[in-house]
């Protein structure tokens, strides 16, 4: 079955369910590690992970190119899988020796003592990233999210074991590397293909797309992780740890938008090969309408009680960054909208547009982030990221409208969600002022109250939301 033939709503709901399971396990581990290691050790691991995510972009970009070709009629899928594995191995042979040299000759990120965990983690992440992208191009693309969930289930106990053995931040890297290695066989099994040696013709076709997807990956990851790169280089690992705590609390806001954008590119690509513009418009409008449905209440909740949320969850060492927390929550809303437009542009075979937009925004984010970091610290870096994301959204949506002028980018469901979020904010702000937060019980009550108010308001005011929920439940029960 092809990506276009899958039930998009069912696959998204399966993927979101996987994301929630993954978040529950990962979040519990994050709270434990953040408290045990403190901001400095916690930040050191995420700085290392960020460097891995930036440097593995040749692999992820190559994997995206393989994914794109798989969705096109007639392309040999087994060769695409083989090509993705070749890319993972080649990148490891190049990047790991360079990282060893960098770690021993510079103190920019002070990673000399972390070179071995970096090398181990990088190799297994490359294998997982390349194969999981191929899986996300299949009709069962939600399985790619479940593979991530499996990895998270394995990661937390393995990391805890290494940390308890005294490895510290390096133990978190070893735990993630071990969990990733154990997950790769599952991904290959779910792909249901035996890899074969790609022909020169297949490699040339993949390379044609990869010449844009690889730089797009670099630019996209650099943009998304620019804050950590700047904080790690110019401030400290402790600043990275505090920043990462805000990222963890807002992560659920990416679940629906992340799953939707992963499946959207393959569907748009296949519809384009069939010249089915009506189906493209329908899927894009639906994705834009619901991509931020979880990010919006997280933003309004963060705005109502920013510092109390951070301190209650992660401890008093993580105080003082409440405003940055609100900014990151706003960034999540905008970035989920942007990701749908980017996936659509990639699906219509114009990744060069995403490359140019990302390059402009990267320069803006780097320059503005550096200046505001010097003046305002963590809050300044977050402000630069929010401004840059709004610029990226504007440029990407403008480009999208040149090809799909009939797609409404500011959809009615999105407007309904903002209205429901406003109702939630007023309620939670009042309740927070009356009750305050002195322990977990009060925090959980306010979060539950906010969620109930938000979704009740959404059911009441949004016909689209009611139809979507009924459709997904009906399809799930009859599946």
How would you describe what is shown here?
The protein is mainly alpha-helical. Helices cover 83% and strands 0% of the residues. Helix 1 crosses helix 6 (169-191). The chain has two domains: 8-410, no CATH class; 414-479, no CATH class. Mean pLDDT is 83; it is low at 1-6.
Cα(first) to Cα(last) distance is 16 Å
Number of spatially distinct domains: 2
SS element count, helices: 18
Radius of gyration: 22 Å
Biggest sheet architecture: none
Mean pLDDT: 83
- The general outline is globular
How many beta-strand segments? 0
Weakly predicted, low-confidence segments: 1-6
Topology of helices and strands:
Layout: H1 8-55, H2 57-70, H3 77-105, H4 115-135, H5 142-164, H6 169-191, H7 200-234, H8 237-250, H9 255-273, H10 277-290, H11 295-304, H12 306-314, H13 322-347, H14 351-376, H15 378-403, H16 412-435, H17 440-461, H18 463-478
Helix pairs in contact: 1-4, 1-5, 1-6, 1-7, 1-8, 1-9, 2-3, 2-4, 2-7, 3-4, 4-6, 5-6, 7-8, 7-14, 7-15, 8-13, 9-10, 9-13, 10-13, 11-13, 11-16, 12-13, 13-14, 13-15, 14-15, 16-17
